[in-house]
Write a structure and sequence with these properties.
The chain is α/β, with parallel strands linked by helices and about 475 residues long. It has 18 helices and 11 strands. The protein folds into 3 domains: about 130 residues, no CATH class; about 110 residues, no CATH class; about 200 residues, P-loop containing nucleotide triphosphate hydrolases (Rossmann fold), CATH 3.40.50. The structure holds guanosine-5'-triphosphate (GTP) and magnesium ion. The site of magnesium ion (MG) has 5 residues, from helix 12.
Length: about 475
């Protein structure tokens, strides 16, 4: 395998260079933005792309090497550094039932486990689209405003933490009058990131409890007031009673759509996953396909209009091969229409899209030209729960252009608290359609209900969703 590092001003010219030097089969291993020169952060960003080409994989059949039957071996080798390796490397427990879906996953166990130690780590960050990089010679104002936001966020976090520490020591030294509820809220307060003063927060232990779970102050105040009204007869100073009461109030605020069980009678369901880069669109799409196979049927077609990254199409193709589902690659809106017509007998069509930077309205408009309303495609905006809330708001604002109907939250397993699920919904009022809590396909797709999401938000240990 030949590995080369390329530097370019943007992704488009970088990819061109890579194609010229290494050919169309080149694999992107990682991308990062670096700044050279004496001005450090203020110097122009350069995109550094590490790419590789495996010229001789055909000869690589020495003991211990991956030996998948063709064409699977070819696909696997081409994406060996891609996140899909996570999927192939997972432990596959022997199944006792004869579900068609489980059958197709069972074809791969020995090769998957054989590759466990050989497979390199997947890239930790997804590549940024070309247009998010500055291609002009002047200092990029977007980068500076990004830094400014980051500095402001840090300032706010430090201020909140300082306030919390002082409140915590006050409540400890006062000794009396501190209820179990307020003590609990205070211990969780390391994660508080709200703008209100701490003294106001600690006046009401219910509010403190909610804010400690990441819920915005204004919303927390409303929920606390509503809870006190509805449960005046309960002892809300008892943390268990208070938590149960809050759960009941919370679940009234959370909207979900349970994906309907599609039948021929109700026609075909078409779902496109849209959103920023690297949030988990392709992985979630594979999980949804797998869930449909387990619950309903394998009458599914996968379509990708993600032709942006060299390895992206391969990622979906590997999922398609494993699940024995057709995968169509489309590069124009007309081709999308043809693909939809080709699969009009299918119950479910899942459409993967390239990650679009919320700051790149051209790319979002381009996507809109594919997902035109006449095709009746549900657009689900995929959001990573780990993203800063100010950025989530901006993402939602930008993707409104596509008139998405639902949100999907991924990566909740990486979050310390999940108030973001409620905060986002309060602001954008789109029901949540799916939540994912890990990289495993198909396991890490949660069956959601308002009650379940309320419990997730109030739980102190989202990371332990895996057994
Ligand atoms: N921890 C965690 N990781 C996840 C989850 N969902 C996806 N990932 C990981 O996130 C990374 C990116 O996933 P992809 O599905 O390729 O993301 P994408 O949105 O399709 O990326 P682009 O096509 O590049 O825009 C992979 O390493 C996934 O395994 C999740 O729920 N939790
Ligand atoms: Mg993808």
């Amino acid at each position: 395998m030949q590995v080369r590092v390329f530097q370019s001003e943007d992704m488009a010219s970088g990819l061109k260079m890579i194609k010229q030097e290494l050919g169309p089969d080149a694999l992107i291993l990682s991308t990062k933005t670096i700044r050279n020169g004496k001005f450090g952060l203020l110097s122009r960003p350069i995109l550094e792309i590490t790419a590789a080409i495996d010229n001789d994989f055909k000869e690589k059949t020495a003991p211990g090497k991956i030996k998948l039957p063709s064409p699977e071996r070819k696909s696997f080798n081409r994406v060996v550094n891609d996140p899909v390796v996570q999927f192939l490397n997972q432990d596959l427990k022997p199944q006792t039932t004869e579900e068609p879906f489980q059958e197709c996953f069972r074809e791969y166990p020995s090769s998957a486990s054989a590759t466990r130690s050989a497979a390199p780590e997947p890239p930790s960050t997804a590549p940024e689209p070309a247009t998010s990089m500055s291609s002009s010679g002047s200092a990029p104002p977007k980068q500076l405003s990004g830094l400014e936001t980051e500095v402001n966020d840090l300032k706010k976090m430090v201020k909140d933490l300082a306030g919390q520490i002082s409140t915590f020591s006050q409540s400890n030294s006062s000794g009396s009058g501190s209820t179990e509820l307020s003590r609990n809220a205070a211990t969780q307060s390391a994660y508080i990131s709200d703008q209100e003063t701490v003294s106001q927060i600690t006046k009401d232990p219910l509010i403190s409890l909610l804010i400690a779970r990441g819920i915005e102050t204004e919303t927390a105040e409303t929920i606390a007031a509503e809870t006190r009204d509805s449960f005046a007869d309960r002892d809300l100073n008892d943390i268990n009673v208070a938590t149960d009461a809050i759960l009941e109030t919370l679940q009234k605020l959370i909207q979900v759509i349970n994906p309907p069980r599609v039948t021929r009678l109700h026609g075909q369901q078409r779902i496109a996953l849209i959103g920023p880069t690297g949030v988990g669109k392709t992985t979630t799409l594979a999980k949804i396909a797998a869930a449909h196979m387990m619950q309903s049927s394998n009458s599914i077609a996968l379509i990708t209009i993600d032709t942006y990254r060299i390895a992206a199409v391969e990622q979906l193709k590997v999922y398609g091969e494993i699940m024995h589902l057709p995968v169509d690659v489309v590069i124009t809106p007309e081709q999308l229409e043809q693909a939809l017509n080709r699969h009009k007998d299918k119950e479910l069509i899942l459409i993967d899209t390239a990650g679009r930077s919320p700051r790149d309205s051209y790319c979002i408009d381009e996507l809109a030209s594919f997902l035109s309303p006449e095709y009746n495609i549900e657009k689900h905006l995929v959001l990573s729960a780990t993203t800063r809330e100010s950025e989530l708001s901006e993402t939602i604002r930008q993707f409104q252009k596509l008139d998405f109907s639902n949100t999907i939250f991924t990566k909740i397993d990486e979050c310390l608290n999940l108030g973001v699920l409620l905060n986002t919904q309060i602001h954008n009022e789109k029901p949540i359609s799916y939540i994912t809590n890990g990289q495993r396909v198909p396991e890490d797709l949660l069956q959601i209900t308002p009650q379940m999401i309320a419990k997730l938000i109030m739980s102190q240990d989202q990371g332990s969703t895996h057994e």
